[in-house]
Request: fold
Amino acid sequence: MHSLTGIAASSGIAIARAYRLLDPDLSFEKKSIEYIEEEVLRFHAAVNLAKQELQQIRKHTETQLGTEEAAIFDAHLLVLNDPELIAPIENSIQTEKVNAEFALKSTTDLFIDMFEQMENVYMKERAADIRDVTKRVLSHLLGVESVNPSNISEEVIIVAEDLTPSDTAQLNRQFVKGFTTDIGGRTSHSAIMASSMEIPAVVGTKTITEVVRTGDLLIVDGLSGAVIVNPTEETVKKFEKKKEYIEAQKAKLAKLVNEKTISTDGHLVELAANIGTPSDLAGVLNNGGEGIGLYRTEFLYMGREQLPTEEEQLEAYTTVLEEMNGKPVVVRTLDIGGDKELPYLNLPEEMNPFLGFRAIRLCLNEQEIFRTQLRALLRASMAGNLKIMFPMIATLNEFRDAKAILDEEKQKLANEGIPISDSIEVGIMVEIPSTAILADQFAKEVDFFSIGTNDLIQYTMAVDRMNERVSYLYQPYNPSILRLVKMVIDAAHKEGKWVGMCGEMAGDETAIPILLGLGLDEFSMSASSILNARFLIRSLNKAEMEKLADSILQLKTEEEVMAAVETAVIHLREKTTIS
Reply:
């Protein structure tokens, strides 16, 4: 028996035989060519085949997992459509008179090296995208069949140096019980997709491919990050019991799908979900979502060559509102910028894109884009319970300007005789410290707040959450963050307004007791987190959590906050059972 430790990337326990997923032989020799234009055409033929494959994988992923996961392949398609990559490869073939394989590999290696040298984790992951795309095109140039994990027809745990997003998307959950890799991290595409697919995964073991052979018995513990190779019978029985317990807990949680989210002393809160497109709704409804707390509309704009039309947007918004059947749907207007770009807008590069021309700043400047979206939303409003939310609001004037444009479009539609709901609430995301500090003034003019903690933490702590070297400063439980959250909630409640939270913190088991005590009205999270959050809140006493929150606000460090929550809450969960 041998044990390795890696990074727990997707929770759960998997016990099965190992299946070594080996890359095909993509070796080649550098050759001089005589017929240059024919070689360029051969290169383009391979690129087109790769595009067709990626489009099929994207469609399959969107159907099986949802739009956010499918957007990974939009990035791959953009690589294959990027003239800054394709042109140098063509130029290499033409000027150096070399074969397409050599031109492709030598050019993409330069890009991969450049991205891997960057400190930003997000940019490092672009290297993985280019590497994945390169392998796909190279396999077509060489006439070598690509690895296809979908062909696996027996229960296995996949062992690989790394899993590309396209590998992960093709995993058959019926047979692939887990996977483990040499490299990778929690934010890698494969880890994110594994979590969505609920496949236990441990990545970053460094040496798993060196010590495991196909057929070895493996245990992958996606909770602790352990991988056990050829375990003893006693160890297998221990983990089988652990797995049975986890599955039993899932079954019990399923009983809460149609239950209210109410504390032990009768305080009711709303658990909503964050979505990207209508295809994500099934997960929301299956997990008992009581609304949509964040509809990220930018996914309608991504992975395409032009802006979506008013009619295309109308169809998407109407579908979500109708499917939610009267439950609240908070739609965030276009939030492009930062780590989300639209190549067809040809926006200039910025030194600090997260602090730059993005979200409401872009919309107020590009009003035609903004007005089209607002018209589509207003026209869809009769289909359900619509709430419109403006992102990245830093000043009252920004909100007033955005609201004025919305009111103008309302009047235009009224003049055209198009019916509009008269109960649309209009709110803002609170993700900039200046807005949180001035919440008492904003609360007089908005209908609601939704706290976007991902950016609020980043901006408050002056930390790039993608930068590994300063990631220790990304502290959701830092008392300074909690005080800002309290400031927003208190200001809203004073004016009779409600407050939601749509950042990752809303579904965090350590944060939930504090947020309940602070008086948060709506918790919006990934659909898969809803039942766990409901179970937790139903085990908590609101009055006790208020006392906990008050005491926590007086603490000095994140570590002290975490310890206080563990002391006050964990024992309650251990005593709670689901009937």
